């Protein structure tokens, strides 16, 4: 197929082509390590903080995090199946439902969200270097803020330094990322226990926060309000990995077998995420005893340590942020950008574009101006990505019965070209899946401009991912009933 299509299509390049047997080197423990590596990250740690601050007890927060990750694991495994069976990335799989041209739309949406995340994580990494240098040099560095940027020279240089560290891995490709994840995952688990031991000894126990009741109990500050906090929190937690639920074929296409991807992801996602939330609650509980207030930011906590502990803690956080950012926020958009113009954009060039956009987005300004991390950023993009997941799952399982004609996915005039490359059923299902969430999003993101949104729309928005995936799946299933052409049973290329 490579020789036949490489010179005649705008849909194929070496990076988007199905993986060969030699490229399928990922075993279950690689996937488990990938997830342990991605779970152990600063945003995941601080997500638990938002739940405690919202009124939950430590146990309620941990259970909410675990439940959300058990829920999002299902579309991960369902969509990941196609990657392993056919060796194709997300951007190519989307062609079977959206059309060979229409697939660029979900690819671009996934890519833009990832660029934002890539920039934010790079900013976190730069801030760690900045904090580390400040501790080592005994004071603040960098001087006055640069006009127009809003950060000082030291912060800018540290941001660019961390950006440069990650760039090395972009140049060296997927195998370098797999090795990084595999080797650093055990280190992250070890440092979690070290951190727990450190706070226990320092504080003489784990503090009162762990045993404190939730604010929803009778007589509490938010008595009777549990469900109004639980549902948006659950949706936000699902939204946290909603991007990966879509582009998981970018990883599972390298799996040795379906068993490897299913077992590895099942072991690596829900339990470690729940354990990380538990650790966040325990450590923060101890910080109340140590410092007189709850410190949820691990970078802030690390900077308060003394001696070699500061250096070790911040170096571990740096390694952690590199591995998370590359796996969660680089691999997907690199393939997605490549799919927009395969003749001109390879996987590596797609990675360069992602890294470039991450700088231009000035992530420190996004963090500075985005109010309501849960209601705007996480739930907002889950409202976009949920409908895409619903369409992909219904198309692959109910319409195609997991049978794809892989060669046709790379042909502009093949069975997945529909009308001029666009499948209107997918577009209509996507739009209808997103529409109910728009009023709630506008109210959450711009409350001053959209204050009069009906309570029903606000309620719908708290279930954004669930609403989107259900509506789009139903609409797409109805519109495509009886329309799918059977896949030609041929040897997979």
Automatic annotation (TrEMBL):
The keyword Plastid does not apply. Belongs to the purine-cytosine permease (2.A.39) family. It is a multi-pass membrane protein. Pfam families: Transp_cyt_pur (PF02133). This is Nitrate reductase. It comes from Rugamonas rivuli. CDD domains: SLC-NCS1sbd_YbbW-like. GO terms for cellular component: plasma membrane.
